[in-house]
Structure prediction request, 299 residues.
Amino acid sequence: MSGHDPFDATQDVALGRLLREHLSAGDDARFVARMRAALAGERDSSWEVLSRWARPGLVAAASVVIGLGIWLSTQRVTDVPTLADAIQPSGAPTRVLAGAQDTRSDVVLVSWMEEQ
Amino acid sequence: MTDVTDAELAALAAGGDAEAFGQLVERYSPAARRLARLFLRNDDDADDAVQDGLLSAWRALDRFDIRRPFRPWLLRIVLNAARDLRRRRMVRQTEPVPETQASRIPGPDRETERTLLRARLEAALATLPERQRVAVTLFDAEGYPHADIAALLGVPEGTVRSDVFHARRALRKELAPFLEEVS
Prediction:
């Protein structure tokens, strides 16, 4: 026996060597080459994933831009309604309302006092 | 590139440098393969698990804190990959060569002795609980300190010391003649 105390907190060199030899596959260089190839494949596949996402992404972005363009163009054609448009009764001449808009507060006050 | 530290290589690899990660693979894949073999007891499965683990580590490098030691982090990922693989598939257990069959091999030549040792070691390891198997291998074969093994296995350091002790005692009993020769 190697005479190594099982309680010893230092490495058991003889046992360690046996274990290492037994567990080593022995073709480490080949495995490293395999790993490097897998890593290269991994990087390629990452780009493939990105490129797969890129196409639908571009289509979606283009759709949004086109949709936004259409919406903006319709907004320019249809002007934002003015207050006059909002309160204008259907069929009433704009002229009448324009006159109403010009009503001065003193005239309104005089009219009200007369009524009283 | 051998004098470059793990942390430096890990930082480069985290930035997408596959060559730097390749250097780390070269450094640690032998130990990772031995560790995986302890769990899977089949060379092909062990290599598959190590590859899975190393690729997972490559993908997770941006989450690795380079102030921490790289080796335990990497081996923990490999360990988990080996456990996952074992769960996922029915492991093709390597049957230990029965002693009667081994001793029937004629001649005291080197090859016979090696075959016998392999069979004896395989059988001895098979009798150990998994944690003891891993602890003694990491401590005596890989030279890991108890604290690192404890962190790797997620158990207290005292448990690792106890595991190493029991595993050593069992292995020495089985391998006494071979150990005498080695030492």
About this structure: Confidence is low (pLDDT under 50) at residues 95-106 of chain B. DSSP finds nine helices and no strands in chain B. The two ends of chain B are 35 Å apart (CA to CA).
